[in-house]
Specification:
Layout: H1 3-9, E1 31-43, E2 49-60
Antiparallel strand pairs: 1-2
Length: 68
């Protein structure tokens, strides 16, 4: 999903949920601490130069301190 689509959708939502890779959901009291675009420039195994861009969300919730 593109960041521009996320920016369009956010104002229309009543609730935002993030699901982790293991299928569990981030608790409702989470806080977004960072949103960033990451650009990766690389050469693949076939010698082709590629660029990949992804958007990264960094989330924090109060339970994170319990795991330190």
């Amino acid at each position: 999903m593109k960041l521009s689509i996320i920016k369009e959708l956010l104002p229309t939502l009543e609730n935002v949920e993030f699901q982790l890779e293991n299928g569990t959901f981030v608790p409702e009291h989470f806080h977004v601490t960072e949103v960033g675009q990451i650009t990766k420039n690389f050469i693949d195994c076939g010698g082709i130069i590629r660029t990949e861009k992804v958007v990264n969300f960094q989330l924090w919730n109060a339970d994170d301190f319990e795991h330190r």
